[in-house]
Design a protein that fits this description.
mainly beta; Immunoglobulin-like; 7-stranded mixed sheet; 3-stranded antiparallel sheet; 3% helix
Length: 179
């Protein structure tokens, strides 16, 4: 058993932030980002990450000024294909990557179709009363992001010996609009 934590000045702290209070705050949801935007290839690595940041709030409780911070600590991904996973980091943008390169936050879809990707971000809280020390709020607030649609396509490789100037009817030469 851990010894009780002594927080200097806490005995004068009549303004306490409970988990219920913390969960009532208007904590902004993380934004789901995919690269490229909203599509991937079957059996390719769909790179997704969360845009999340620490948020600050100022409230008054019992005439005391209270600062509250909501800090993102984990990300629960639901990929829309029946799989999910939890990560303790949001990921980030990748420069010049291809579908055959895995990233720390990518997901592989084994089927084609449209999938709703969901994200729940867990925020831990802490508060400071009248400029005093930061005190943790027990528990977390789960904040749901707006889902995004991920379209997963298939690819087909065709080996071609001609170029389009030599054979305009060769595979890949006709415009999609001419069909």
């Amino acid at each position: 058993m851990e010894p009780p934590t002594e927080i200097p000045g806490a005995e004068d702290d009549i303004a306490k932030v409970t988990l219920t209070d913390f969960r009532k705050l208007s904590i902004l949801a993380s934004i789901i980002v995919s690269q490229p935007e909203s599509f991937s290839l079957r059996n390719g690595h769909a790179h997704m990450y969360a845009k999340a940041e620490t948020q600050n709030f100022a409230v008054t409780i019992f005439d005391q000024n209270v600062r509250i911070r909501a800090i993102p600590v984990s990300y629960i991904w639901s990929y829309g294909d029946g799989t999910s996973r939890t990560l303790n980091f949001p990921g980030g943008a990748m420069v010049q990557r291809s579908f055959d390169e895995p990233t720390s936050t990518s997901h592989v879809y084994s089927e084609t179709g449209d999938f709703r990707v969901g994200l729940t971000t867990r925020f831990r809280g802490e508060y400071s009363t009248e400029g005093g020390p930061w005190t943790p709020v027990p528990g977390v607030a789960n904040v749901l992001s707006e889902q995004v649609m991920m379209s997963v396509w298939r690819t087909k490789k065709i080996l071609v010996a001609e170029n389009c100037s030599q054979a305009s009817d060769a595979p890949g030469c006709a415009s999609l609009f001419d069909r």
